[in-house]
Amino acid sequence: MDATEIGLWGVPLAILGGAIRVSTPFIFVSLGEAITERSGRINLGLEGTLVFGAMTAYAVAVMTDSPWLGLLAAAVAGLCFGLFHGWICKFPKVNDIAIGIALMLFGSGLAFFFGKPFIKPKAPNLPAIPFGAWSDVPQVQAALDVNVLFLIGAALSLVLWWAFRNTRAGLIVRVVGDSSDAARAMGLNPNTVRLVATGVGGALAGIGGAYLSLYYPGSWTERISSGQGLMAVALVIFARWNPLGCFAAALLFGGAGALGPALQSVGVTQGYYLFYAAPYILTLIIMIATSSPTRSLAGAPGELSITK
Amino acid sequence: MTDTTNSAEAPAMLGARGYPAALEWVARRAEAFVIPLAALVVGMVLFSLFIALVGKSPVQLYETMWRGGFGSWFSIQNSLSRGAPLLLAALCVALPARLGLVVIGGEGAIVLGGVAAAAIGVALGGAPSSIVILAMGVAGMAAGGIWIGAVGALRHYRAVNETISSLLMAYIAIALMNQLVEGPLRDPASLNKPSTQPLADIYRIGNIPGMEVHWGLAVGIVACVLSWVLIEKTRWGFAARIAGGNVRAAQVQGLAVGPLIVGFTALAGGFAGLAGMLEVAAVQGSANGSLAAGYGYTGILVAFLARHNPLAIIPVAILLGGIDASGGLIQRRMDLPDATVLVLQGMLFIVILFSETLYGRFKAFNPDLWQRAS
Fold it and tell me: What is the CATH number of the domain that holds B97?
């Protein structure tokens, strides 16, 4: 068999490679959202943060010629968005879901506003590690070209999983998320903890955005995210607020997202748009399957408005 | 809003605290006008700072915005045309909001309503125009109603969060439209912009006499007034407001919360679907990618600015239609990106939501807290 002609085997291989490539922003956004939601707030604005992070990273990388400075700038921008959300939600009667929707529009608007001049130029990409170098088959090499951010994301989900159970900070976040009253009785200020948790969540979402514009798809356009930040929020519920679950779910979503392009690469063009919608459909199905009107979700933080 | 005075009939009488009852009457109602207007002004001031920071003149910007949106009869008609779909898109957010649901996927209902209407309009080619236009309206409303009604049903019967599911459904709807418009419904003659077959001219909806504004504006205003009557004056609206305040209380009262939620969300989606049908029948002439123009998302802002009051939606939709309409002029005259309007919308949205925290904080709006007049 000719090494470059692997026929239909290319589909699962492309899905595997795609899952690794596409899942990385999902990992970062969902881990960030998991931290935020564990503290008892929901930030739907991460979609806007993702887009703004993508623009910031790209713009800074173009100007400084360093993808790492771009990544840093995106994280700082995300941090600012998160802190803003955390700050404004501490006021009574300010709805965290509605503020999230507003920040979604505002973040995208700002990104489009400042991003206009950066649609043309080419920015340096974040590096990838060629785990597929042992193979002669180009498809295998392409599938196993793993970006460093994917590895960092995998490590981070492990660390967070451990930290939620075993560290003081992890316990503080969980107490605040489960009961503001209990937290106050312990002398903790729930608003401060949530401010920090939302800020960190925003920073991680910004990093996810940097991956989008600096690695895959690797350029800045206004349609760069199209709802990935929002799907990541849904994914956190599916993952039951467990960082390891977020990682697994992100891989699953990445695979679904890679389905359309993978089928197209072997010449299946029928129903392209429907395959493109696969991640959205999958999210919806998972939400329907895992929600229940009669019992509250296992592992849900008690203060979370979305599950009340 | 609690209203214990009966001063409407006798404005000269003094209230319990010795102030003119008319003054109390005004004070109680002033909050609902003063706070949103103040928030609007604060939002525009913040936006001026933003514009000044990027090195442009805020004065010139607002002057351009005024000229592009409301400065001439031509621009007013343009604003009204843009406001028309916003009326219906905002109802798609406001009606479920009265039940305590945050539905943000109106864009999906608009898109599918447009596709359904275009498909019916082409399929019934040859029939009398009044029947076809009616059928297109029904098809558009049905498609949008099923789409958002499903969101409501999932919410009530499966406890699926409606905010996320409605937005996911919007993305799915857009994919569905692309699939249909590129595939089975495609007009072979539409080359670089895939569309359905164009509607015959007799099936197009024209302008309101004396204006360059299509009938969609009238339809939207009627829909807003009817929605207001539904919410404020009927027993269904009363039940919906109870359920929106406290679902448990509504269930204890024996109200059928499930049908109420599905009914309200379906009606909301139906209005958005109607907006899609009007875009097809009055503006585009066929269903294509232009249906996903963002009216559904601007509609969210309109509904929140109007605090989900259908009558307040009418002026707010026209105001935002004007801001939308001025976007092109701002881009050309001031060399600012077209996203400038989006930034302004986002800022207004945040300030309006923030202003929610101010309700009930000012003594001036609550005569019960006034000191007795000496």
Answer: 1.10.3470
